[in-house]
């Protein structure tokens, strides 16, 4: 069994909590190299093992798991057929095809979002440089061309041409009318009843446009903690869950 040494300094942020988890459970969590998929329900195992440690709270552990399981390194490790591990590094259930596809989709979306952020920062930096350039040019003394002011400038009158009829009306008349694309109605989701909200129940949670499969790991009154197929832990309201 892994020996646990309580840290002397209270962690200040999520990254420090993840580092402490990697220190106390090195066969489960890692900060570098290849990551391993975590056991479904590992949040409950962490709460049970660290419940007497005043430096950790459920909220902090939940946030640390969310950050760890949403990293590119972890999502890339969630592949079909790979065994999930517990806190001691013991292999358990295998990652199925649906869980692997969800992790791969999440990884692609996360990288695309990061690329958009980098592009926006680059455009902002370029715009800032363009704003600073006119100010630098204005500080330089203006020069005049004396030779050009000696002779008066003459303009040649442009030959008159007959006005051409506008083509906008003709184009509008010949343009085919747009056909409205039929909207396919999304399959109605059925809310999960209070009776069905038990630990281990399979549900659907709608975080984006499409509902995602999840497993209930904790129920506290109207608040429910679920774990996604990728291993991410999410706290939500019971009204946001639907029947799988």
Automatic annotation (TrEMBL):
The keyword RNA-binding applies. InterPro entries: ProQ, ProQ/FinO, ProQ/FinO_sf, ProQ_C. The keyword Transferase does not apply. GO terms for cellular component: cytosol. Residues 118-127 have a biased composition (Basic and acidic residues). It is found in: Cytoplasm. Residues 118-176 are annotated as: Disordered. Gene3D superfamilies: ProQ/FinO domain (1.10.1710.10). GO terms for molecular function: RNA strand annealing activity; RNA strand-exchange activity. GO terms for biological process: post-transcriptional regulation of gene expression. Its main location: cytoplasm. It comes from the Bacteria. Pfam families: ProQ, ProQ_C. Residues 129-142 have a biased composition (Low complexity). Keywords: Chaperone, Cytoplasm, RNA-binding. NCBIfam families: PRK04950.1. RNA chaperone with significant RNA binding, RNA strand exchange and RNA duplexing activities. Belongs to the ProQ family. This is RNA chaperone ProQ. The gene is proQ.
